[in-house]
Automatic annotation (TrEMBL):
Substrate binds at H180, K184, E218, D237, K343, K348. GO terms for cellular component: cytosol. This is Glucose-6-phosphate 1-dehydrogenase. Its EC number is 1.1.1.49. GO terms for molecular function: glucose-6-phosphate dehydrogenase activity; NADP binding. Residues 196-486 form the Glucose-6-phosphate dehydrogenase C-terminal domain. Residues 7-189 form the Glucose-6-phosphate dehydrogenase NAD-binding domain.
């Protein structure tokens, strides 16, 4: 791996402290960092280098999956860190920053390879990129890369404007757009799961798959982020990026028999191009939006979204979105993809359920005894787990047909954090698990009409109790095709229907 300088904008912020420093430290311990690297932390807070190093150390003690125990390794790691106080709007400051970067490059004898990571509010992305260019920080004799955090735009127009601005300073190949779901080990494993297992690869299409269900449910509410979340909602916060990425990954992976194209990024773009658009007029038939009301999470009372600090008592923000999507290509024609995400739901679970088509009627003497459809459940969070549900006769129960699960699991605490995998890739120059601009643009294009339908209040906003599986209306999306949500890996169906009211815009 090339020796490089890592320049972190927002190094005094939450993401740096909770995720980025621990990720770099774990890579360092695993010798997955360049042998020589220079780290420059930026923020407005007035830190000396020593204060900054001790701040980083505290973050490792609190958040790293491996707590620092080897004193000399920790010292070597922290020794690479320097701090420079910079307001992102201060043009002259960038020129001073360049001097510091060059001084460190000379001290360490490393080439001018520079990684810029923007862990700051999105309104600063364009000004930082342009100041990097103007100051000469971006004129390197080596490579330069820009890692950019979400959100990438607020809608199609702003995303295009942001991309146009960034493109003035960085080439597309130099821009690494983070979607932390793409860093999750199980998501990175999806392609291998299908391509390295012909038994699954052979089934991975509309010939054998009846429907796909993608869920990202959370038990947390809006927490302290009302300022951001009120104008984002679940549709921008989770659906436009993470959920569509999971859909793309699921539909893009294919066995070598089915597709000669082995470039997952290109295949994902192909999936988005084939996504059937939803018109504003028709949105209510394919999309359900909801907002959590009061309820209980794991038996603890929880207030409704409208009672949360910083939230308007008449807020129409969506905290839940479910959708039915169709991919009009030869592999996925007629297979509905059901997607849902919500806050304050019954459990924290991110998973993909593949429901296979029903087989022939059971011919071995059990008459009309119904069998459950075979399912492959790929659990991404909280634990990683793959469960294949099969049917078998139970000799201990009069030969009754019963579902059984084959399961493989990996406890979450043994796995690297997604940021570790993504930073490692970015340092190596591998953009496979970063979002290409075309993916982002096509995802916004699809979502844009939905945003407008929300804005124009064309869809009911259903309240759902905190601690539930979301509004019952989301069940109807599947019932139209004769399916139901598989609520968890043991396959429980949705509960009985409640009568539903809707929130009215005031
Ligand atoms: N936190 C998280 O879990 C996640 C965050 N993100 C994204 O990551 C980015 C950072 O988030 P987060 O760390 O939570 O944000 P914070 O608000 O915690 O931190 C913001 C950082 O920006 C710096 N900053 C603010 N204004 C200026 C300025 N004018 N000049 C220079 N630096 C400035 C702050 O430094 P100082 O106060 O010292 O000036 C601080 O380091 C955002 O884009 C967010 O959407 C994405 C996914 C998850
Ligand atoms: O990006 C975001 O993701 C988190 C959920 O991430 P996970 O890894 O815990 O599944 C979500 O809580 C947050 O609102 C959103 O901004």
């Amino acid at each position: 791996m090339d020796a490089a300088t890592f320049i972190l904008f927002g190094s005094t912020g939450d993401l740096a402290k909770r995720k980025l420093f621990p990720a770099l430290y774990n890579l360092f311990l695993e010798q997955k960092m360049p042998q020589h690297f220079s780290f420059i932390g930026l923020g407005r807070k007035p830190f000396t280098d020593a204060e900054f190093q001790s701040y980083v150390e505290q973050s490792l003690n609190t958040f790293s999956r491996r707590k620092p125990s080897d004193h000399s390794a920790l010292k070597a790691f922290l020794g690479c860190f320097r701090y420079y106080a910079l307001d992102v709007n201060d043009k002259a400051g960038y020129v001073e920053l360049l001097k510091l970067v060059q001084k460190r490059e000379q001290e360490l004898g490393i080439p001018e390879n520079r990684m810029f990571y923007l862990s700051v509010a999105p309104e600063f992305f364009d000004v930082i990129a342009s100041n990097i260019k103007e100051s000469g920080l971006g004129d390197t004799a080596g490579w330069k890369r820009l890692i950019i955090e979400k959100p990438f735009g607020h809608d199609l127009k702003s995303a295009r404007a942001l991309n146009a601005e960034l493109s003035k300073s960085f080439e597309e190949e130099e821009i690494y757009r983070i979607d932390h779901y793409l860093g999750k080990p199980m998501v990175q494993n999806l392609e291998t799961l299908v391509s390295a297992n012909p038994v699954l690869g052979a089934l991975w299409s509309n010939r054998h798959i009846a429907n796909v269900q993608i869920t990202a449910s959370e038990t947390v509410g809006v927490e302290e982020r009302a300022g951001y979340y009120n104008s984002a909602g679940a549709i921008r916060d989770m659906f436009q990026n993470h959920l569509l990425q999971l859909l793309m990954m699921t539909a893009a992976i294919s066995s070598p028999m089915q597709s000669a194209e082995r470039n997952i990024r290109k295949q994902k773009i192909g999936v988005l191009r084939a996504l059937r658009p939803i018109s504003k007029e028709d949105a209510a038939h394919h999309i359900i939006r909801g907002q959590y009301g009061a309820g209980a999470i794991q038996e603890k009372p929880a207030v409704g979204y409208r009672e949360e600090p910083g939230v308007d008592a008449a807020s129409m923000t969506d905290t839940f979105v479910a959708a039915r999507l169709w991919i009009d290509n030869s592999l996925w024609q007629d297979v509905p993809f059901y997607i849902r995400t919500g806050k304050r739901m019954k459990d924290k679970s991110t998973r993909i359920v593949i429901e296979f088509k029903a087989g022939i009627k059971e011919p071995y003497g059990s008459g009309e005894q119904p069998t459950e459809p075979n399912r492959l459940t790929i659990q991404i969070n909280p634990d990683e787990k793959i469960t294949l549900q099969l049917n078998q006769k139970n000799a201990l129960n009069n030969g009754q047909l019963e579902p059984v699960n084959m399961e493989f699991s990996m406890p979450a605490n043994q796995l690297p954090d997604g940021y570790e995998l993504l930073l490692f890739d970015a340092l190596r120059g591998d953009a496979t698990f970063f979002a290409h601009w075309e993916e982002v643009e096509l995802a916004w294009e699809w979502v844009q009409l939905v945003l407008e339908a929300f804005q124009e209040n064309r869809l009911p906003l259903y309240p759902y109790p905190s601690g539930s599986y979301g509004p019952d209306a989301a069940d109807a999306l599947l019932e139209e095709q004769g399916f139901h949500w598989w609520q968890n890996e043991s396959g429980h169906k949705a509960g009985s229907r409640r009568s539903e009211k809707v929130y009215q815009q005031v």
